Amino acid sequence: MTAEIAIMNKEAIALAADSAVTLSSPDGQKIFTSANKLFALSKYHPVGIMIYGKASLMDIPWETIIKIFRKKLNKNSFNSLLEYADSFIEFVNKKNPLFPIDEQKKYFSQILFSYFSIIQKDIIDEMQKSIKSNGGIDDTKIYEIVNIHIQKYYDYLLNKNVLEKFPKNYAVQTVKKYNQEITNIINKVFEKLIIDKKQIDLLFQISKELLIRDIFHSNISGLVIAGFGENDTFPVLRYYDIEGIINNKLKYKKNNDMIINFKNRAAVLPFAQREMVHTFMEGIEPNLLNWIDGYLNEIFLSFPKMIIENISNLSEDYKKQLLEKLLLTSKKICDNWDENIKNIRQMNFVDPVIKVVAMLPKNELATMAETFINLTSFKRKVTMESETVGGPIDVAVISKGDGFIWIKRKHYFDKDFNPQFFSNYYRGEDNNEKK
Q1: What kind of fold does domain 3-99+219-280+357-434 have according to CATH?
Q2: Do 163 and 253 meet the contact criterion of CB atoms below 8 Å apart?
Q3: Are strands 28-32 and 21-25 parallel, antiparallel or unpaired?
Q4: Prediction pTM value
Q5: For residue 30, is it left (φ>0), alpha (ψ between -120 and 50) or beta?
Q6: Is the CB of residue 20 less than 8 Å from the CB of residue 35?
Q7: What is the pLDDT of residues 228-264, one digit of tens each?
Q8: Which of 276, 284, 268, 270 is nearest to 357 (CA)?
Q9: What is the DSSP string of 114-134?
Q10: What is the DSSP letter of 60?
Q11: Which end of the chain lies in a sparser environment, N or C, as judged by fewer CB atoms within 10 Å?
């Protein structure tokens, strides 16, 4: 895990990222505090990129991918920041020798096996409940449970939006291409269950929908691309959820853009582990707010029933009508509570901070960004939670006039012993451009 933040106003955007990375294996987890998550996307233009979540794409480090793209980009520029973002995604998305077909097939098998295993676990859990309740289970009941759960997951997928940028027949062609792999996974995951052709066909449909629907594996990458294009007067930010490449197509989701303008003068955008930023900005810890909202909703929606049950001399029909009216009133009260608390948080906590952020000079933006990451790291240090945020904090400020400026940056090597790294940083770029 990680903690990252972008703080924007009309003058600049500050980016900050911690250095902790969690590596998992069958033997357990190991946390290192030396990962690089913040980079200049161009050596020559004011554009930066941060990564969070998974530090690699199909076992290729994002750092490697970013630096290959940066070399390819050379001195080329775009009119808008959003064009830089589109160009980077296109570079990853196109038929790319970095991601061999065999690796794509293996990745697809892993994703499918993981999702089918969730379905299988729910089926087994339901069967065990039935055995516990009834003292046993027959083949008819097993078949019924299997059918219900496979259909449930298929319906769940159909309720998700179809992602953009996929060719019309991509999913059908991919399932056809990987037919044997899907069959092998079905046989492996559901080998001890009773399934027929109808259910197998439905599992193939699930395989197809998984490719194109807005549902992502838990272990995905987040990308934040921010800065200025040639025609951008104020900073712009775009961020993505990225899963992987299957059949030469990247599965990703473009999230909302943040564009600073005359109306939207400043923004504070946390990524990955966000709770301490939200606590500071909104005056209450998000989990506590959810517990309060849930408890109040439970009280307000159960109270009408308690009232009705304690009123005598009412007919059952009238009790039912009265209960419906009271429940409707209670729901309105809950909705009003949620709306009022939201407005109070916005006016008394968020807006005052945003007003100050809109006026901060570049160095103060950087200090604020670093402080938020330190705050999240400190929370992990003084609680029993895993210290998944920590290590040196990298901070950069991007402005229209000064470009991408490092405020704090760690190196895995001693700068005094490696002057050739800095002298070689721009070497060869002009030659590449001429070629």
Answers
A1: Glutamine Phosphoribosylpyrophosphate, subunit 1, domain 1 (3.60.20)
A2: yes
A3: antiparallel
A4: 0.89
A5: beta
A6: yes
A7: 999 999 999 999 999 999 999 999 999 989 999 999 9
A8: 268
A9: HHHHHHHHHHHHHHHHHHHHH
A10: E
A11: C
